[in-house]
Automatic annotation (TrEMBL):
Enzyme class: hydrolase
Catalysis: reaction(s): GTP + 4 H2O = 2,5-diamino-6-hydroxy-4-(5-phosphoribosylamino)-pyrimidine + formate + 2 phosphate + 3 H(+)
Cofactor note: Binds 1 zinc ion per subunit.
Domain GTP cyclohydrolase II: 168-333
Protein name: GTP cyclohydrolase-2
Top-level lineage group: Bacteria
Named cofactor requirement(s): Zn(2+)
Keywords per UniProt: GTP-binding, Hydrolase, Metal-binding, Nucleotide-binding, Riboflavin biosynthesis, Zinc
Catalytic site: 289 (proton acceptor), 291 (nucleophile)
InterPro entries: GTP_cyclohydro_II, RibA, RibA-like_sf
CDD domains, sorted: GTP_cyclohydro2
Entry's Gene Ontology BP terms: riboflavin biosynthetic process
Amino acid sequence: MYMLDPLIEVDRVISELRRGGMVRVEQSGSSIVMLAVDAVDADNFKFLSQFDTSPIGLVLTGTRLNVLGIDQSDRPISVLTSAHNLSLELVEFLANPLSVLMSPPSLDDLNIRDANALEASCITLAKLSRLLPAALVIQDVPMTDIPTVKASLIDDYMKNAANSLTQVSQARVPLENAEDAQVIAFRPRDGGIEHLAIIIGKIDPLKPVLVRLHSECFTGDLVGSLRCDCGSQLRGAISEMSKSGSGILLYLAQEGRGIGLVNKLRAYQLQDSGFDTVDANLQLGFDSDERNYLPAAQMLQILGIHQVRLMTNNPAKVDSLQRCGIEVSERVPHIYPSNKHNDEYLRVKAKKSGHLFEI
């Protein structure tokens, strides 16, 4: 019998969630039905509410509950239920990051408990889907024709996808500040989102290679947003590599520190309401940085690179890459002038995220 690839199994439920559908998460004989909060409306909420034998639970990150002031414990993921059943209004308030602008409903009947392994996997799945890390769940009820996935496959997805990356294309692409350049595309085995390597000059793999890990930034890289320094860092890194003779810029599909473009725009809206960069991510229910550097390590290993001079202001990036098996022989500072739109953003990077530069 044909066995479905574990990565493709997860991709199928990701697609279903992004279309607003429900999926089943199972493991060891237990299962739950999940609906991403991003997709909740009056109709599907009413549908879930009809199952009297299984009350609806709202799964949220501890980060989200902390910023709401509802639960200050160190629980990473919690499930909320209500003695009188959750209402759509209450779900909207608890899960919507813009609820800080709403009048809070009564929370008197709210119950909070630790999430079990299946419920925790639902949060991981929502993040993989680039949706808010929040989900409605009910104990498995009679539903047919909904995609099903094992929780263990969800939990292993990032590692498996990174380990399965292969080089799929390569082309010479002369750049404005680096004419001797080529771009190599890497794709995971499930056909998911590609990561890119921009190779400048001739690389000597026997010496530490100048490398920049650059997470994609549509706003900064492509349309020239002044809210961040990403565009300056991207073009500046390529220029510096060209001047030094060679280098590799890994362009990683991890928009918005790993939360996705839509959620990054939500974070921008929160920032315009007074939150800083880190606090806006926490308000959304994410960690301050959700990026994963396993894909970067795998790409470097495929390219035969095991020792790098890492172009970054972020010591955490150095530590993360080394934990993935790449030796970092030197951290190369990568600092560009601020402007009136990103000055505070850079200050927060230094103060809260440990970036090493003077603002």
